[in-house]
Write a structure and sequence with these properties.
Layout lengths: L19 H29 L4 H37 L3 H26 L3 H9 L4 H16 L1 H16 L4 H24 L4 H23 L19 H32 L4 H17 L1 H19 L3 H28 L1 H6 L5 H20 L1 H13 L3 H30 L7 H26 L9
Helix pairs in contact: 1-2, 1-7, 1-8, 1-10, 1-11, 2-3, 2-5, 2-6, 2-9, 2-10, 2-11, 3-6, 4-5, 5-8, 6-8, 7-8, 9-16, 10-12, 10-14, 11-12, 11-15, 12-14, 12-15, 14-17, 15-17, 16-17
């Protein structure tokens, strides 16, 4: 079966904006890049696990907190990519280049603002959110937090540059740079954690260096004209274009709010989860790491949909936007089912790669397997489909649905279910972690159902932003 084949009732192949080869060349490098990006966090956790569960827990807590800010960079990058893609589809490359420069201005400004705010108040921030954790976990978290925050400007530049290259359909370059980043990170971890024996600080420094290296390389390529439609012009001359910034922010701000609220909710869940004990925190961290690999196809296709659907909307090819959106969702379901099935089978082996206590290992294995079932059925519609809608500029709807679903299910129901388990069996507090994850699955069901209805009624096709 050819996954990139259209049904007979779609437009003739000669009229289509994208060929099967184009889709394959766009999506497959994105899948590989997402896999490599996941290994950065996984390598940190595997190598840090040699220090103990306090180290794993500290890295996990910081990762959850920093995602709140990192997702803002991704939101701005999405805004820039959507605007750029629509201009490219509209055959206006000069405006796409203007959008690229404004995106970089916004991303750098916001990233330095976060560094200035987070570093001085790092102790207060972590203690306010994770005050219940043990002293050893908090000490590890504070150390890792400093290096993570320092990497924000580099991460912002990398995300923005990669998004702009994707808007042109060039996902191979960011894949190559991602390989380079992973090599830097793994070598850095080996040298600093095992060689210099500086523990958590070594994991943080190697993450900072890898992100800086990737950002510098990708930014340098973006400054070269070559044969690209989108590149940075006259970077030495500051240029502020308010109308273009508004277009980017019209997508970036709702997406940023959506992503921020999403991770605020995750952080709140992590906060009351931290009271379930170190074994539960460690098991949750490992489950998130292992489960994230099953989401790689969905994340990659979601990124690719911004380019494909965005250019269809810019070219006023609404029928093709629907066709490609449907096709990309089918590929997502097939690929995520295959990956989730493999992870389900090999869960004991994968969890065994981490040095956990018997209690944490059993807990992580059980939750990972429930997650694989939910991922293959529920996750694509809840998280890949909204990227199809965002590519057309339908960002307010996805923001509202995501916020309602987050607070009603991921936060409230996770809390109620987990604490009901605690009331029924207070001697096994770690089992309350199951309640957190089942609350999350309810979140996926709710938002996925509403996104499916939105896609089918086609109101999202009227949200063109250029």
């Amino acid at each position: 079966m050819n996954l990139f084949a259209f049904r007979k009732d779609t437009e003739k192949s000669s009229d289509l904006l994208f060929s099967r080869n184009y889709l394959a060349k766009l999506i497959l490098p994105l899948v590989a890049e997402q896999f490599l990006a996941m290994t950065i966090g996984a390598c940190d956790q595997v190598m840090v696990s040699s220090i103990g569960e306090a180290g794993i827990s500290g890295v996990s807590l910081v990762d959850q907190f920093s995602q709140l800010m990192i997702q803002l960079f991704a939101a701005f990058a999405t805004g820039g990519a959507v605007v750029s893609s629509q201009y490219l589809g509209h055959k206006s490359p000069e405006k796409a280049r203007l959008a690229a420069k404004q995106l970089m201005n916004i991303s750098l400004f916001v990233s330095f603002l976060f560094v200035a705010l987070c570093l001085p108040f790092r102790v207060w921030l972590l203690r306010a959110v994770y005050g219940k954790v043990g002293k050893d976990v908090m000490a590890s978290a504070l150390t890792y937090f400093v290096w993570t925050v320092l990497s924000f400007p580099f991460l912002a530049v990398y995300n923005s540059s990669a998004a702009l290259f994707r808007s042109m359909g060039n996902s191979k370059l960011s894949l190559k740079v991602s390989i380079f980043m992973n090599i830097l990170n793994i070598v850095g971890n080996a040298v600093l954690i095992y060689g210099a024996k500086i523990g958590i600080a070594g994991a943080g420094i190697s993450t900072l260096v890898s992100r800086a290296g990737g950002a510098i390389v990708l930014f340098a390529f973006l400054c070269k004209k070559n044969d690209s439609d989108v590149y940075l012009e006259n970077i030495q001359k500051p240029e502020i274009n308010i109308p273009m910034i508004r277009r980017i922010l019209s997508v970036g701000v709702p997406s940023g709010i959506e992503n921020s609220v999403f991770h605020i909710g995750k952080t709140l869940v992590q906060a009351f989860l931290s009271g379930f004990g170190t074994a539960a925190i460690a098991a949750n961290a490992i489950t998130n790491t292992v489960a994230s690999f099953s989401n790689i196809p969905g994340n990659a296709i979601g990124l690719g949909s911004v380019t494909v659907v965005g250019q269809c909307i810019g070219a006023d090819k609404k029928k093709q936007a629907v066709q490609y959106g449907s096709l990309l969702m089918k590929i997502t379901y097939l690929s995520m089912f295959a990956v989730s099935a493999l992870i389900f089978i090999f869960t004991p082996f994968l969890v065994g790669l981490f040095k956990l206590s018997d209690e944490a290992r059993v807990l992580a294995s059980g939750i990972t397997r429930t997650c694989m079932i939910a991922n293959s059925v529920l996750w694509p519609m809840a998280f890949t489909m909204p990227n199809v809608l965002r590519a057309a500029g339908d960002v307010k709807f996805t923001m509202i649905v995501s916020n309602i679903s987050m607070w009603a299910f991921r936060v409230l129901f996770s809390y109620l279910i987990s604490h009901y388990i605690l009331l029924c069996k207070p001697s096994a507090s770690h089992l309350a972690l199951y309640g957190v994850w089942f609350g999350m699955y309810l979140d996926w069901i709710f938002r996925g159902a509403l996104f499916f209805i939105r896609f089918k009624n086609r109101k999202w096709l009227d949200k063109k932003i250029i």
